[in-house]
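Q: Could you fold this chain for me?
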Amino acid sequence: MIVVGFLLLLDFITKSWISSLFGASYDKTIIPDFLDFVYVENTGIAFGLFAGNNRFWEIFTLLLILIGFFGFRKQIFKTFFNRIISAMIFAGALGNWLDRIIHGHVIDFIDIHFFKYHWPAFNLADCYLTIGFIGVFLHLIKVKQISHQKNI
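A: Sure. Below is the predicted structure, expressed as structure tokens.
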């Protein structure tokens, strides 16, 4: 749970920093033709998908948070790797859910682009969720390979 707290704090600090210093019209180039910091109010999910459904995503995210919480309490995540990826998913879901409850939207600020080709703006919680779900996917592949080898 320490990892969750650290990740959540980092997400909160970065969103607060962007919100307080820059406001709704902020767009600052960090690395030309690659990285900008912007201020985006996102009512969708990661990377702005399905925008305009904030209430649905509040409820859906709360369910993910509860599943993660009970998973930690039951200690179903046995390996270090599984605990870290679970902590990332839990912290990411909780960070964005708190934004929805407090602000009515998620604050996104990382804008990655290659010249004029932009990836939708995102935040650290989105990064945690993405890395966490990639970790789950890799874990499932590993489990399937081990299972397949046992059946040979």
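A (continued): The chain has a mean pLDDT of 84.
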